[in-house]
């Protein structure tokens, strides 16, 4: 069974409740109806659909969830998923970035200095070397990464990755590809 099929089955609230009740130990249509708060007719319809899909074994009024199908589907989906792109060629830096960067956004600023430095060195690449940026533009670029632009600006300046003078910023550190 594919993960997409399972998700599609569980997108229906009644089927989701039936699966939840079965996972929690209900074993008959009546027990599922009591545990889920659904009418017996809705439980029977959902159980029939789940049984046809192979997620539930139905024997008269007795029901059994094939819970192992969830793990099988997850493993199959993971095996066919494309590899997650690396954020850094350095394995240590990549591990740090994966922990703090999701979908191109910084989910939190690391408290540990060494990890924060890795994140800041990654973040500073949004600034072109040799270009001067007014604070308003720096804020706009940083806001795409994290809402606390003031903290990011301060960290970048403190780590000498950006330099500030009279409200104008420029990149002054970090690795630059040539």
Radius of gyration: 26 Å
Classified by CATH, the class of the largest domain is Mainly Alpha
CATH fold topology of the largest domain = Arc Repressor Mutant, subunit A
Structural class: alpha+beta
Task: Describe what you observe in this structure.
Residues 105-171 form the DUF2087 domain. This is ArsR family transcriptional regulator. With 178 residues, the chain is α+β, with helices and mostly antiparallel strands. The chain has two domains: 3-77, Winged helix-like DNA-binding domain superfamily/Winged helix DNA-binding domain (Arc Repressor Mutant, subunit A), CATH 1.10.10.10; 91-171, Arc Repressor Mutant, subunit A. Helix content is 53%, strand content 13%. It is built from nine helices and seven strands, in the order ααααββααββαβααββ. The chain has a three-stranded antiparallel sheet. Strands 1-2 form a two-stranded antiparallel ribbon. The longest helix has 14 residues, at 40-53.
């Amino acid at each position: 069974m594919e993960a997409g099929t399972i998700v599609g089955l569980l997108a229906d609230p009644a089927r989701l409740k039936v699966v939840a009740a079965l996972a929690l130990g209900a074993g008959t249509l009546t027990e599922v109806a009591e545990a889920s708060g659904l009418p017996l007719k809705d439980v029977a319809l959902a159980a029939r659909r789940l049984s046809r899909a192979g997620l539930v074994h139905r024997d008269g009024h007795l029901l059994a969830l094939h819970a192992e199908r969830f793990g099988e589907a997850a493993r199959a989906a993971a095996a066919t998923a494309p590899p997650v792109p690396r954020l850094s060629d350095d394995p240590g830096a990549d591990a740090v970035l994966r922990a703090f960067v999701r979908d191109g956004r910084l989910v939190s600023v690391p408290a540990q200095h060494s990890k924060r430095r890795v994140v800041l060195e990654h973040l500073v690449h949004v600034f072109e070397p040799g270009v001067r940026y007014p604070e308003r533009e720096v804020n706009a670029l940083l806001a795409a990464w994290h809402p606390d632009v003031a903290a990011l600006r301060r960290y970048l300046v403190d780590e000498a990755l950006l330099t500030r003078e009279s409200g104008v910023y420029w990149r002054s550190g970090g690795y630059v590809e040539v």
